[in-house]
Write a structure and sequence with these properties.
single chain, alpha/beta, D-Maltodextrin-Binding Protein, domain 2, five-stranded mixed sheet, globular, signal, NitT/TauT family transport system substrate-binding protein
């Protein structure tokens, strides 16, 4: 004779099955959630925001959370501490970590921008610009050892200007406060990212007179990177992330500044849409946004030249040591 199972026992069993299933789903969701630490919020990183806004990461089954950390040192500290999974920051920071002998190397796996993103902004708008005008001027620079400052010095040297001898160089202002320091009257010239450069032009504070991106050439200026241990444990997630990024890169490359600005506007709610369009257009015109995530050897070597010229490179680091192009190459081949 078949034994009868009381209804409440059957209900408990069903409830346990549901709880286990829900827990499993939540675990899977958490495994696909990625936290990005970006060095700053900038139009310079438009493809990153497009990937989120257009659902390209979501198509890959990823939930991406972007946190803005002010400065390369803070962004790298967050990555090393595990506060973020992936860092969007200058490739030079991974070299610094390697030079310090880190056991868990920081690996560059997907390039976002391929030129410097700063512009030379002059307070005086009356004269036609000539590089020699910088001599003996007060120059509000960026943090020592950071890519904006190193690329800026590299560009200046091409015009025969030694940043530490020919300028009154100010480097003691925090990255987040550089724009406000210039606005308050500090410096004759300043290095600015967009959209700040366009905002200052609109406000009549001066004008953009040169592009450090154009002057310093192509290099892996801003790269998505993570710890080797994270890659070892999450190869599928890293691949999906790179796939979504590449789709965004292609989208940005094939759309107008107006279309891109409309998509990324939610990330810049306090900015005039016209300024956003101007900023995106300025970056597109000079080829700042990489069209694929591959970090090529020529760009890497140019980065090493820039760092060496700035005296920040102990020894040249071959790309294969801290660059893994496997994910980028797979994404680009699809």
């Amino acid at each position: 004779m078949m034994k009868y199972t009381p209804w409440f026992i059957r209900a408990i069993v069903i409830l346990l099955i549901v709880i286990v299933a829900l827990t499993s789903c939540n675990q899977e969701k958490n495994e696909s959630k990625i936290t990005i630490g970006e060095v700053t919020r900038s139009v310079f990183y438009a493809p990153e925001y497009v990937a989120v806004a257009q659902g390209f990461f979501e198509e890959q089954g990823l939930e991406v959370d972007i946190q803005t950390t002010a400065g390369g040192d803070k962004t790298m500290a967050a990555l090393l501490a595990g506060s973020v999974d992936i860092a969007l920051v200058g490739a030079e920071t991974s070299i610094y970590v390697y030079q310090q002998g880190a056991e868990d190397r920081v690996i560059n796996f997907a390039q976002l921008t391929q030129t410097d993103g700063t512009f030379l902004f002059a307070r005086n708008t009356e004269d036609t610009f000539d590089w020699d005008q910088l001599r003996q001027s007060t120059f509000l620079g960026q943090r020592k050892g950071g890519m904006p400052q190193m690329a800026g010095e590299f560009a200046l040297s091409k015009h025969g200007i030694n940043a530490h001898q020919d300028l009154e160089l100010i480097q003691n202002v925090d990255f987040a406060n550089i724009a406000s320091a210039f606005a308050s009257g500090t410096g004759d010239y300043v290095q600015l990212f967009e959209p700040q450069a366009s905002i200052f032009e609109q406000e009549g504070r001066g004008k953009v007179v040169a592009s450090f991106g154009t002057e310093s050439g192509k290099l892996p200026y801003t790269v998505f990177m993570t710890k080797q241990s994270f890659i070892n444990d999450n190869q599928e997630v890293v691949q999906k992330f790179t796939n979504g990024l590449h789709k965004a890169q292609l989208w940005v490359d094939s759309h107008t500044a107006e279309e891109i600005a409309e998509v990324i506007l939610p990330f810049f709610k306090d900015i005039d849409p016209a300024i956003l369009i101007s900023s995106v257009n300025r970056y597109k015109e000079q080829g700042t946004y990489a069209t694929d995530p591959i970090i090529d050897e020529d760009e890497w070597n140019n980065l090493l030249d820039v760092m060496s010229a700035a005296g920040e490179l102990k020894e040249r680091v071959d790309a294969e040591v801290i660059v893994d192009n496997a994910f980028a190459e797979h994404a680009a081949s699809k």
